[in-house]
Amino acid sequence: MIARALLLATALIAASSAAAVAQTRDTFANRNVIAAPVLRATVQVSGDLVRIGDVIDNAGSAGQIAIYRAPDLGTTGSLPVAQVLNTLRAHQVIGVDTRDLKEISVTRLARTLEGKDIELQVARALERRNGLGDAANLSLTFDRDPGDVRLDAGFTGGLQPTIARYDNRNGRFDVTFEIANENGAAAKLRFTGTAIETVEAAVLARTIERNEIVKSSDVMVERRPKTEVGTDAAARDRAVGMQARRQLRAGQAIRTADLVKPDLVQRDQNVTLIYDAPGIYLTMRGKALDNGTEGDVVNVMNLQSKRTLSGTVVGRGQVSITPLPSRPAQTSDTTSSLGTTRPAPVAVAAVSPPVAPKAE
What we know:
- The chain is α+β, with helices and mostly antiparallel strands.
- It is 19% helix and 34% strand.
């Protein structure tokens, strides 16, 4: 009985050992299959070095070993597979599955800051600094065209201005930004140049003579330096239809002071004289002795009476004559303010009948 039990136990142990050995062999086999290094066809790196772990899968402890310099930021290069294998063997990485590749491509990832975005950020940093206005009104000229700036892809932070200087005497600016990466480090970008504040101005497309009316086709809108236009810039819709006080050159920014309301009455022009009073409305022909726009008081001549009167310009070729203050009835004349005349009334004396003499 004892011998039989020992034989049974020995058989069980042998079977268990065989199963364990087989399981261990399968585990190592699986590990060898999983751990086999495999070459990648395309590689993307975010730094300036290419490491073993970038070019093959299952690199293990050798993954952090640097083997190549990365291409320039935002560019792609290629490596022959034979060269890669020789490099890997030098670091004891063998048995690489090349998947019949002839070369692999390596791309260096980058963050690109477009030139227009950089200009906008610089303008915002200078906004309302030392007398400057809104960022949208600033015109920047860089000492060196920033173009598109590329950074390592790890620099994901925003542009934070750390220095922003502006000298309003010469218009020079000096702005420095910092951009943080995921590790807490920061890249610095510095830009210098000239900033000018601009405003929208109505600009003449042709030369305008004195007293000429500005038409819609004569005016275009451009941005001009604020120092050139000043605070008196005329808006386009306010310039059209106005009259030039003096000759204005083509390309000149129009100022409000350059314009006046157009004359509705010209000197020596035939005009209509209007007398409008309660119950009376009279018109007569006259001649203007002055130029005048709406609301101006001008001298006119009544062509019928040849008298000179003063009136207010109320429309094109129309002058309103203000009624004179009322006078006593015996001398009042409702049309005298228009310069008309009529014979003065003749007073007639009443004669009493003769008185008969008394009889004595």
